[in-house]
Amino acid sequence: MSEEYRLSLVSGGQPLPIGATFTEDGRHYIVPFNNQLKVYFISTRQCIRSLKFNKLNNLNLDNLVSIKLDTVDPNLIWCFLSNGDALVINWKEKLVNPIIKTFKLDLNKDDSLLEIVQFNNESFTVITGKDSNKPHTRNIIQYTITDNTTNTLEHESLSIIRNVILFTISKNTNKLLFLSKSKSQRILTIVDLTSKDSNNQTIVFPYKSFITSLAISNDSTIAVGTSSGVIHLIYENSTSTTRILKWHIDQVLSLSFHSDSNYLISGGLERVLVFWQLDTEKQQFLPRLNGDIISINSSFDEYISLTLKLDEQNNSKNYEILLLSSLDLKSRLSINGPRQEFNSDLNNVKKLIKSMSKSSKIDISKLKYDFTSFIKIHPITKQIYIINGYNLQIFDFFKNEQISIQKISESLQIGKVRSEHKILDPSITKFEFTNDGKWMATIEEHHHGEIDNLLSQNDLTYILKIWKFVESTTKNPQSTPTTSQSWELVTKIINPHGQHVPIISLISAPSSYFQGIGFLTADNNGGVRLWRSNSVNGSNDGWSLRKLKPSSNVFSNSVSLTWSKDSSLIFLGFEDEIISIDTNTFEEIENPEINNKLQNIAGSRIKSLDIVDNNLIILSKTSIKSINLLNLKENDLVLSVNQPKHGENLITINHIKNLIAIAVNYFNPQTNKLNSKVFVFKPTSKTPIFIGDHDDYITSINWNFENDFIFIDIKSKIGLISNSKINNIDNESAPTIMDYAQEMSILLNNAQSSSEIYKTQDEVDDSQEINGQTKSLDINSFNNLYENLNSIQLDTLFERVMQVIN
Amino acid sequence: MSLSEPFTLTKLPRVSGVKERCTITKNSDADTLNVGISGASISKYILKPSPKLAWSHSLPPSSVVTALDENNEVYYAGVFNKTKKSHSVLVVEKLENDSKVLQEIELESKIIDLKYSVDRLYVVTENSIISFQDNKDKLTKYWENKGLYTAIYSNFINDEVILTVEFNAKKNNINYRLISIEGNEVNSKILESKTKFSNLRFTYSNGTLYQQHENIITLLRLPHFIETKSVDLDELSIPFKGKNITLASPAIDRLIITSDQDVYFINTNFNIVLNHITSPKSKVEILFTTQAQPKSYHNSLFGVLLKDNDLSGISITLDSNTLRDSLGKRSSTKSEKSAQASYKVVPSILDIKDEEIDISSITKSKNFDDALLTFLGAENDYYTEKDKVVSSSFINAIVSHIFEFRSDKLPERALTYLLTHPLLPTIDGLLDLLRSKPRLLRQAIVTANVSIKELNKELNITENDEIFKDIITRLLEFPKDKLNFKDLESNHIVERILSLDFGYGLISLLIDSSGIFTWSDELIVKLQDVLSRKIDALDSASNLVAVVDQIELKHFKTVKKVPAYSIEQLSI
């Protein structure tokens, strides 16, 4: 029973903001993710190796501080974690256990490892201290491995600097710069690791502005980035005079000296990378990067690697690692993961766990916050579409790469600074594909924002857009033709349900209704509208409103829709009532018996409705239940649940096999973590056919239009619930899909043509004319032979065989 | 989706001991009917405007018509002579006022089906021989199954394929076969079953062969004879044991089944009985139906029933074969009914178990209120989403228990809770039942699912002002197109609204629905007074707002312009 299904984590993951490193030869780039190590071959931009973390190898690089290359064996890397653990990992060869050895650095109590300054196989210099934004003491400690077999370490403290806020390391790793705060003064301290002199040079920073970033060059030139956007340059021998570089108008988040200290590179919230040629003060810009530049690394001369913080909403920690060539500033690699938009701020995870672990008597599945996200799978390409602000991220699950970003709405292309943050971007709330995958509908919300301080500042405009899938093949004489896929806007409807009326639900038409080219929208007061293409064949004629059911005067945010497979019926879930709508008349069905039953069956606010094999599956706030639509009675499947506000993200239906998958997140009091389970049900039974466990919060689950369910969790890991049994559904369904008349005529033609062949070949012998050899054999000939084979007698089998070949 | 009452087309002569009372050609329709009546005649009836005999060729009383076809006014009949025990094909031509026997061909075995198509007559006989007439006097065998199989059913499909079903009683095998009229086997399949087949019945329509054996009707899809579905007559509550069952399929997924005196119209796709008629005292068989055109909805079709000694017509209105037409149509089966006597606990999804609720411990408890509320884990006397999740059948059982056994002394707390519960079923006349308890009545008006009609009725009769207000509030929550004030005493209601100074929204709806012509002058004057007072108040209020706005504009700078870039704020 349960062996048929398997839950596995296969894809996804987020790149970590720090730790990416080049291999010795500079041809490969090793990028740590939260669930794997990926190695890219830079010249082909392809991922050539991914080392997945799983329960078997027990790898986990959370709190990674740095990755260093082994100075002897190029296949080994040393990963340092903030708690002092160091793992030596073989990244190149496929080993059962890629961890070669582990050891632990002794740290003071409350201290964590903050940075690795210098590294070789025998000794390394590190900075330790309390991991906090407030001023704290930083220790520079040198560890030496005295015995390689037992991993015995000796350590020696090189220097201690107190009240440190920020620090940085020069490119040749010889110089360290610390910013410390004592009373009202801010002091910059330079530590030179090459000199044995313990008197560190100190400079008092005379200005008031808040320092956000630091850099020190090999020749001790100091760059200080401030929150107002000004960069101060302080030269070693002229402590009083500083040079000022002005271009940034908001925080300078990252600074780095390039190669020979002639260039300074800076970046910040503007999303523009700025190159300062220090001798001439000429500037060069690389604008329109995807995110705020939070770190610049130019330690490898050929490339500049940037870490971009991608999204500003909800504190999601999505980063992009961008690798630029130093010569032409062209992008060599751009590495990111799925970018979900969670319904609740991820900072609340900690709060939630804290409150859950405190209270003793709790319902472990009743979670206060909703971290789900809205994700859909394209029915044809099987790519995952993820809402990301006003963009849709298209992510390929098999390649485990972002394919493209589809821009749905116009917005500012640049990073926002200062009061620009008050301009609110439009955001996509819902999208849906037609069953053939050729059309997409999106709904977006435009905030007027407070920028002009108008009365309308809290108003929202809703826009429905219909997009067409365009596949264009560009034929390049040199290479194989490449197909590019994109979405083209066909129709844009502003306020499709009237002004200030939000659209809560959006579904596509079943294939039986005008080939499924249609969308249904429902608003927050029960109005339903049907949109269809103006032309049946789907040329670019635009879409229009075809039918509408007027709104009531009651409001609800629990609105859901479903449309029966034969397109005759639409069910609208509104608060805790189910309203049945006849597709032809677009009016509520006037049958008191049906209406009375449907009104009182959900039990609480409805989150999602779906029809599976004439059963209505209702997910409400307190329960999941299945109703047989033919007798309007509850099936055996009635279970109590505590799904989050957007519980519709955690339920999905396999419409081929008529299975329901639901993900349930819960708090595990033993481990103090959020775990989850995935249940697969048949619509008539409460006994699940599969239960899968996952050790993170699942944010969305979807059917992949084949046999599997795909889910994504809070760490953007993508998992698969697959049917391990090789499925013969294709063989079974193929004949039924074909039209009966068509099939019959094929068989008839076969029979006729073979009898004609027979006649021409052997006209003399007509003794067999009656039961003549008039049938040709093909793959399907023996199909019937194997039906209910286990109960068959041998001579019947013979008879069957004879029938086929005779 | 209905069957009409059968209407008599003609009476049949009394013939004893014959199973095949009559046969109808497949090319018959709602206008003309070609019937072969055993022991009597081959006849043509014109059915419109009223049934009348157009032509007939009489047969000796000993002959049984086993198959019939008509082509261009020539009738081909498979005839069995009871006295001579002989089988033959009789070819009769219809003349203006007479008939002419063209020929009679003797055959060895019973004729199952025959068909005249493209200048040839094809005959299927019980001994599994298919033959055709290639010259005038003789039939030529072109397909023969030498075995122990007996042909039990045959049908010509689209004039080009012959479907036969053969049965081997000894091995209990069924052999389905498709043969083209050229004599080539198109497809065949042998079905071996452990269940002993007897008295099999078949019908064919639109690519599906329906096979009935006892309670199971199996749908086999041509041309591969794949079993797509099976329908259990038990589940549809159709009696079959010891009954004479006949089948006919007028359209895809639709089947007409007769079982002695009952005629059922079923949809095999949704497994529901669409319609059911009974002709008391007479046994019915379905002989023939016209075929629906595929993909057209709401077809009206015609069928012929054999009703004792009557040949009856029946008109069949098809359903659309959609979920919309089938919603709620399935009656509960016996097993489902027995299952309803028990009420299951709704378990949490993280701890799925099968447990039953002992409902009697609640219903028989001395303190019913407490027992129920404790069981439901209710913290208050009203429903909240924190309470225990129960199935709707449990709530139904509790509610019907209250009104059945405790109606004289309604449990107030329990009912207050139930009236706020979203699973509370719709109860006819709920307000009447609760009238003795004004508190519960109010609760029901505010939270329970009460029809507009009942609310209107209560609005007319209530004397309590608070209840009156509640009803108006509730009525205004309904969508406007659903409201109906036909039975409302509007004059009286409006007066009361004015005196209570509450619910003016209802007045405008009342005017919309029935106008003010029935109202008394006095009332209209009153209403006008109220309205002009309201307009005056609004007028002065808007004046005031304008004044305040002006003052604000003059004296306060409420809007402070924030520039997008403010260099002044930069400090070094």
UniProtKB/TrEMBL annotation, chain A:
Keyword set, alphabetical order: Nucleus, Repeat, Ribosome biogenesis, rRNA processing, Transcription, WD repeat
Highest taxon of source: Eukaryota
Cellular component, GO annotation: small-subunit processome
GO biological process per UniProt: positive regulation of rRNA processing; positive regulation of transcription by RNA polymerase I; rRNA processing
WD repeats: 245-286
GO molecular function: RNA binding
Compartment list: Nucleus, Nucleolus
UniProt keyword Nucleus present: yes
Pfam families the UniProt entry points to: Beta-prop_WDR75_1st (PF23869), Beta-prop_WDR75_2nd (PF23769)
Span of domain WD repeat-containing protein 75 second beta-propeller: 425-691
SMART domains to which the protein is assigned, alphabetical: WD40
Gene3D superfamilies: YVTN repeat-like/Quinoprotein amine dehydrogenase (2.130.10.10)
PANTHER family: WD REPEAT-CONTAINING PROTEIN 75
Name listed for the protein in its UniProt record: WD repeat-containing protein
Organism: Wickerhamomyces ciferrii (strain ATCC 14091 / BCRC 22168 / CBS 111 / JCM 3599 / NBRC 0793 / NRRL Y-1031 F-60-10) (Yeast)
TrEMBL record, chain B:
Entry-linked Pfam families: Utp8_b_propeller, Utp8_C
Domain Utp8 C-terminal: 363-565
Residue ranges of every copy of the Utp8 beta-propeller domain listed in the record: 2-329
Protein name: U3 small nucleolar RNA-associated protein
Organism annotation: Wickerhamomyces ciferrii (strain ATCC 14091 / BCRC 22168 / CBS 111 / JCM 3599 / NBRC 0793 / NRRL Y-1031 F-60-10) (Yeast)
